[in-house]
Amino acid sequence: MRQKFQLLYNLALIFSDALAILASFSVAYILRVQIDTRPILNPISAKSYLLIYLSVLPFWLGIMASVGLYKRSFYHRFVKEFVALAVTSLIGIMALITLDFALDRPLFPARLVPVYAFGLSLGFLWLGRLVLRFIKFMAARSGKGLTRVLIIGNGDIAPKLYNNLTGNKNYEYRLEGIWMPELKANKIRDFKPSKDHLITNFSAALKRISGRHVDLIVQTEVLDDERNYQLTSAVEAAHARYKLIPSNSSLYGVKTTTDLFFGVPSLDVHITPLVGWNTVLKRIFDITLSLILLIVAVIPMIILAILVKLSDFRGPVFYKHARVTRFGQTFYIYKFRSMYWKYCTGGKKTNQQVFREMGREDLLHEWETTQKLKNDPRITPLGKFLRKTSLDELPQLINVLQGKLSLIGPRAITKEELIRYKASRDKFLSVKPGITGLWQVSGRNNLGYEDRVKLDVYYVQNWSLWLDIKILFKTIGVVLTRSGE
Question: Which of 198, 250, 323, 456 could form a disulfide bond with 412, CB atoms 3.0-4.6 angstroms apart?
Fold first, then answer.
């Protein structure tokens, strides 16, 4: 029943999106061709126009499917879904404009049509999905379309799952039962589920599965070999969904793929998804965007270089400092110098030496704790502006082209800082650092050092091109609003 409801919901999403796209182009045509009295550039009949966009429709829906808009992960993520709809609408419109230039036969009767169509498509797509989400919510309140869940095992996560599944804010799942094996000697179970949900023995739990009374089985601990075999066999026979939540949290941080090793099925385990073709994709992304940004920024960079030199004539324009990149290799990062040269650590002085020369040894503790100073007396007036606007980091685009740095990634740190990454050190060194990253768009200097480390490790373990694109757009917002300076 649940699978049929989910299938119907997915089909309804596709139908709603297709209708929204066609409606947006139809309304755009009516607004510009039939209501607007100004002459049009390319006379196209309504029938020919509709046939063109019916043929384009599968391509547009394919773009939406490729970014995951028909996956469950988008169903309850309003902002994520809206951003994805905006991106796919923009890609679709840009592709059509490119096709319009490439073909002899025009696709648009006037230039305003794609502009209207973009705004209308985003609005209609979002409206259609809101309506379907409301219908799904009302169905869930009446007990229809819910995923029936069975929890197997103790595990530290079992109580949390139980409370979430039986809570008032759950409109997608219904807990059918929980079975917990006997505890080992000298262990006490603080968690006590209600009698309505508690399954007293393993055989009764297997019967629930084989009788197809549940849609999803969540196992919170690894059982003995015999019980594990019985459980997986019952899940396979019932064609149910199955999730294993390992008690060892380190297993969450790996990327696994299936492969054959001498004809034997195996799991390939990687610290990060950024392996194989993903590294090629990210490198192409880095080179393309950094070249575009350098071309756009070349004149402002020349002006800034002159201003930096005039602000403190004794020192160089660029600040060069040793940092670590992938696999622990050392490289020199480039920035516009924002400090007075006599206080700059790029001049081969340590921070301790600089603070003593300034008579500000009181700053040592703050620096050693966060590797940042909120009110740094070493920075020039121009340097303060460069840092607030992040313009001091423009020369790092050269590092990106060199292949030592990425546009998006963990922080570029010194070798001395590696010790603060503790057990996460090797995870951090499995990818290149970036000009911007998760910590920069999640609070910047307002975050403590430990929080920055956690965000860096999260990025390494959960990389995707979509995540890079989101961080890139958030970085623009952070720079413009100067949040977390």
Answer: 323
